[in-house]
Structures are given as structure tokens and as C-alpha cells.
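Record copied across here:
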Amino acid sequence: MQNNIFATMRSLKIMEGCKGTQVYTLNPSGTGGGGGGGVGSVGEKFLQHLQDHLRVNSIRSKSTRSFQTNNVQVDNNNTVLAEAMATYGLPQSDLLEPLIEPCLKSVDFVDTLASVYRRIESCPQFEKSGVYLEQCAIFRGLPDPKLFRRSLRSARQHAVDVHSKVVLSSWLRFERREDELIGTSSMDCCGRNIECPKNSLVSGYNPESVYDLCTCSQSRREDTDAEILMGDDECSTSEEDFDMSFCIGDDEVRCIRYNIASLSRPFKQMLYGSFSESRREKINFSQNGISVKGMRAAEIFSREKSVDSFEPDVVLELLSLANRFCCEEMKTSCDAYLATLVCDMERAMLLIEYGLDETAHLLVAACLQVFMRELPNSVHNPNVTRFFCSAEARERLALAGHASFLLYYFLSQIAMDDDMKSNMTVMLLERLGECASESWQKQLAFHQLGCVMLERQEFKDAQKWFEEAVEAGHVYSLVGVARAKYKRGHKYEAYKMMNSLVSDYSPTGWMYQERSLYCNGKEKMMDLDTATELDPTLSYPFKYRAVLMMEESNIEAAIQEINRIIGFRVSPDCLELRAWFSISMGDYEHALIDVRAILTFEPNYMMFHGKLHGDHLVELLRHHVQQWSQADCWMQLYDRWSCVDDIGSLAVVHHMLANDPGKSLVRFRQSLLLLRLNCQKAAMRSLRLARNHSTSEQERLVYEGWLLYDTGHREEALAKAEESISIQRSFEAFFLKAYALADSNLDTESSSFVIQLLEEALRCPSDGLRKGQALNNLGSVYVDCDKLDLAADCYMNALNIKHTRAHQGLARVYHLKNQRKAAYDEMTKYIDKARSNASAYEKRSEYCDRDMAKSDLCMASQLDPLRTYPYRYRAAVLMDDHKEAEAISELSKAISFKPDLQLLHLRAAFHDSMGDYISTRRDCEAALCLDPSHTDTIELYHRAREPSDEQRQKERS
């Protein structure tokens, strides 16, 4: 049975690249023309330009994919890329659209965070899990996945019932994607109660124990050789104790009337009530659907109160009998016993039908747990999904106590990630809406249904669901209503709706971005510029302006425009757009770099409107650039790493892995680059692949340790590092241990131990890239210990092996030695060397006067508006100059698109200094929602609460 199940499964991420981030609508004409503003003529020149460059070499594709698109002949290798571009059409500004985010989005995010924090603090303990789930939904739309996972852990920590524990534990496991780790089973325990599959089946509220080490391995149910035989049990009671019999066919089962009557009220009424059976010694039980063996087991249970000695088929009979005669104790025992038998997909598929038919809560929970811990694969098994998708399936689950918003929230998110347009996604979201009871739940379910219907081009239904979400209180869904109206031909209505939104609420970037879709010319450009000013993280305005420049034949300016956002927020769609521009200029080397980087983020990404696989485009482009050996790749990697060119480094690593896909060391380097680019999802995938391709046990343990550390399991990561060192001393094991230990407030003794570990790491063989990092980290610890000369030596040694970031550490040493000019010069060197140098400008500002510092911080903000230090510095300067309103405004500008803990804390402190205790309290609550353990904010919050309470009382009086 299991083989049949797995035969139906397919990979979850096959077409992931075709969805959300694909921004270019296919040009129906199959040419570059057809848009407004002279696109046709520009497109023709562009295609001719392409053909001049590309009709050169014979291109042979290693791809075995079949691309059945009009006018593209894959066998004609001389012109395949030019014809692909001609067929798929050029990006056109008129066809670009921003993505409507399928998540909760607030018009005042700070208020939303503060409200959630207050409810978490004030709600009864048994209700905390539900509020944490709401916090999960809010954090889902943020770029930092750690916030979401932390809330998910808190929801699991405060879960009370088995159903919630099973779903949340499975969801936590899914977030780690352990299904991608070779050699692991879905039912393996991570070692902590919080995700233990057996602990999840235990009801009750015990938040203090969820992070304890799991003892499930000690309590495994052992197959006992000393099973109690039926005959032995009957002998345990003397013959004279039996005072009645149940007759089944020609067989007779002797029983004790009192014991049977004690099983339930129906049995008691039958045996001691007014029924005729109460006066009979022999009762015909043939028509009650139980076998002789089953009835004997029931008799034994009436005395022993245990089903552990029975075969599973007998327990199933007892479960049915218990349901028919309301034997709650016997049903509970059968339910618990059968739940322990569910250990794999085959048994889960076999037993869930019994569980649903008999409404066995624990058995169904155990089966659902297997299904959910097998995700994402199980979502493609029709035998599994039939238990979830239909309205009838939800009703069956509800009868067994397992239909909940939580369950369908989990399942629908996986379905949306897999295929947003699928019927399964629609059905799961419909079930989600049926389970929604609270306002935020309805907002989320209806908004996501609207997003899915929009993707399916069912615009009338999309409008209906978005309007339902708006009615439930989700203002952001007005964007969906406007988009659906626009798609249905009501552009002016869409414009009026967004215009009213801009007028009625505090303006945000996404409001102006959406309104720009429904206007033209200068008005459109003004809205896009305002959107960028209010929220520079929105990619659509940059993409639109860049494509417009390309249509005006100003391709260099188009590349500069798209570089503005790639410089601080890398995404596949922006890199794809830049690759288009590079190809148009005949710059195939840079195009290839971008395509390789895209495939690092999303290995199955589809280029050219989702029609051409990225791997195939790599094959087409690479024949137009210089070929590198593996040794060349290492030299290129050193050069790009040293100039902090992370995109270029990713492309080199992708090239290296194409030649040697099993190289775990290179996979690990890839994960480090991805983490530097804040692409944690892709980084974790690379780490999992590094772990899977490990050639030794100690190497595998190190990568498992990094996976644990990066997902918030610091102690487990340390244990993996120590285990690896016990097998063999290695650079990476010592480095992992030192890194994990340094992630805390180090005292003198701890710092000395970290120094020792880093020195041990440096004694082990490794390459210069990692040794440079270790030297840099060692220098930082020396600085913290006030050992400045030793720190300087470390930084100089790191610079000698081209670890450019060591300039920052060396500048810090000079600054602490009161050599500010030397520190400034050191950071200038870093700015000159580094491709990504926003942090260098920011750091250099610390070593110069106020005017020069302002200039450097202005440049830092232009290069990377997500860096918060420049806003905090400028706000502090304004406060020093007694310009309180301007200081608050400076912080608010950044908080509106990046609700950062430090920004919120500083604004709260400013409000406090101005006597505005209500605003202080609100900002503190929002900050504590992001990090409930932030000590400085907790202290400020407690100080602000008493004046805030007094102020409210005065206002009431």
C-alpha cells in the first residue's frame, strides 16, 4: 500500500517559479511591439540588435525539456535565444503589475502589533495559543521568517488540546523542511517535547515543559512476549463469579453482569432496568455486529480496564461496540491504543477511516499527524487530500474534533505555495473560510481566496471575496477589489476607490503604488515616486521606471534604476529584468551572472514569462562567455568574495556546482552567501543539500548543527558541534561551536573560551575564505576583551587573505585607540574595494564630524534604506537640537516600511521624554511584540504604564 501511495507523489516546487514573482505578462502578438509609447519600434530595433549578437555560434542545449512554443525551433541552435526573445516578447511597462500580497496587511502596523501584544499579555492562559496564531498570521507577511517561527513555537508552547499540538508541531517541522534530509523519517523526534510526535498526542496545558528534552524514546511501546491469553484471563476469575452469558451464534461468552453494566448507562439499563434482558441469564447478542472474540475481549476489559493485550482488529471491534453502547472508558482506551499503532503512512491510511467512522479523536489525530509530517509530499496524494478538501470531509473531521481554522490555515499555505491556481487550493481556502470565526480569520481567508481567484482570472469571484474581506475589516483588500474591477473593465471605478483610500487613511507606499495602475503620464510617475519615497522596499515602481527607460532606448539608465533596489533587496524578478537588459546590450556575461543567481534562489525558476526554464537559458548564454575550469572558479570566487560582490559570488558557486553538484563544501559556501543576502529560505535549502552530500559523519554533524542554529535551536547546535569534534577536529566544527557560544552576552571566562575555540579552528585546515571570517570574528572578541593589539593583528591577517570586511574591524580598533583619521581612512579603503558598501558608509560616519557623518549616512540610506542606524542617528541629532517633531517624523518614516525593534524603542523613548506616555506605551508594546525579551523596552514600558494610566483617568474625568 505504501508503495502505491508514494508512486502518486510528486515534487512540491516543480512550477514555483511560474507564480508570484513572475512579473511580465506575455505579449500576445509575439513581438516586442504592441504596447504604448513607441514600444513597437523600440522592440523591433531591440530584436534586430539581439539577432546581430546572437546569430554567432552553434548552441547545443544539454536540457532535455521540450519547449513547445510558437516560432521557436530548439533544433535551430544558431538562433534559439533570439527567437525565444522574439516569441516570448519584451517586458512592457503597460503590462507590469505589482503583486497583491496574500497575507494580512494593516494600514497602521504599529497599532496592530501593539494590540496583539496587549491581548497576549491579558488573555487567559488557555487562550494564548490562539492569539499567538494571529501573531503568526501578521508576521507571515514580513521578510524575516524567524519572527513567524518564534510565534509558531509560542503557539505550540501554549497549546492545550491534542489537535492544536499535532498541527503546530507538524507545522514547526515543516518550517525546517526535514523531509529534504536524506535518511530521516517523518516520525523522527527532534529531541524536544515541542515537536515530539508522541508528546503531541498528550492533552493538557504545560507550557514550561515543551522545550524539555523528549523522553519518548524511553517510553516506546515494547512488543511483549508475555501477552495475556484469553483463556488465562478467564481462569483469573472463578466460574462461579459469572452470572450471565452473551450468546453469539452457537457460542456463549460468560460474563459478570455487574461489570458489564458498569461499562455504560445503556448496558446498565439493559441488565438492571426494565428490559427483558435484565431477567435473563442468557442474552442473544448476535445482531449487534460483534464477534465472539470481540465480546470476550469486552468481558475482559470489564474486569481489567485495559486493551493492551488484544490484537488491533479486536480493538477495532471494541471501539465500534463502545460507540454503539456509549462505553466512554472503553472507547478512550481503544482510541489511545490504536493511536499508538499509527507510525507510518500505510497504517495512517488504513486506520483513519475507522477513526472517522467511530469519531475516535486520538486515532484521527495520530493519522492526521502522519499526513502533516509527510508534507509537502502528502499534499499530492489524492488518497490523503480527500480527507480535507471537500465540505463533506470537513464535516467528518469536525465530528471527530479535527476541523479547525488552524488545520486549514496550515494546509492552505502549503497548497498556495505549491500551486496558487489549483482546485485543491481553492477548496482548502473555502474550508478555511468555513472554519473562520474571529474577525482576523475571516479577513485572512477571504483575502487569500480573492488573491487565488485573481490568479485564476476569475475576476468576478475575486471581487466578491475581496469585498468580503473588506467587510470583515481588512482595508488592504480594497486593493484587490480595485484590481478586480480594473480587470473587469472598470478602470475609473478602481481609480476612485484607491483615491478614496489615499484620502481616508495615513498614506502608505502600497496605496500610491496601486493608484498608479489606474492613471497615466505625469500623475502615474508622481504616484510611483511617492510610493518609493514612502516605502522604498516596493519593487514595482523600480521595475516600471526601468522598463519605461528601456522602451525609450535608455538601457543603461534602466539598469541603474533596477540596480537601486537590487543593491539592498535581491529578488528573482528584479534579477530577471536586469538579465533582459544585459542581453539587449549584448552583455551576456552579466546576464549569465544574474540567471545563475536567480537559479540559486529558485532552482526551478522559469524565465521569459514563465515559458523558458532558467537552466536552459544558462546553457544558451554560457556559449557566449569565457569558459572557466574549476580552478578558475575558485579564483573568481576569491576575487568576488573579497570585493563583497555577493551576486557575482553566487553565480560562481552555481557554476561550480553545475560541474560538481555533490560538493558539500561549495553548497555550504552558497548558504553563507544567501544568508548575507537575507535569503534564509534558499540558504536553508543549500544547507540541507550540503548535509545530504556530506562525505563523512563529522561533516554531516556540522551542517546539521548550522541548520539547528539558524532555525533557533542553539543548544542542539552546540551538541552537534561537540559530537563532530569528538569524531574529528575540524575548522568548521570549532567555528560553529565558537559562533554559537558567542551569540550571547559573553563574560570574561566565556570570551576566553570562544577565543580558544577560534584559535583551534585556525589551526585546522581550511580555505582562505573561511579563515578570513574566523580571523575577523576572533578580532571582534579581542576588541570586546580590550585586547586591541591582538585584534589588530587578526584583522591585518584577515586582510592579507582578502577578507575585505576586516577593514571595519581594523577601523574600530583605530577608533578605540583615538586614531580617528586612521579609522576614517580604513573605512574609505573598504568603500573603494566593496561592491556592496552601504555598511561601509554607515560605519565611516562614526569616525568623522557631524556634517561629513550626515553625508555618509545619507549615502548609506540611498544605497540601502533598510539600514536603521542612519535614521536613528539623524533622529538623535534632531532631538539634541530640540526638534522633537522632526525627530519623531524621521523615525516614523522608517518604521512605516520597516517596523524595527530599535526604531520603535527609540521613538518610544522620545515620546517618553516629551511626556506622551500613551504613544510611549504603544511603541513599547509594538517593540515587545517583535521581541518580548528586550530588556530596555521592558523597563521603559513599565515606567510609562503608571503615567499612562493616570493620564487616561484624567481624560475620562
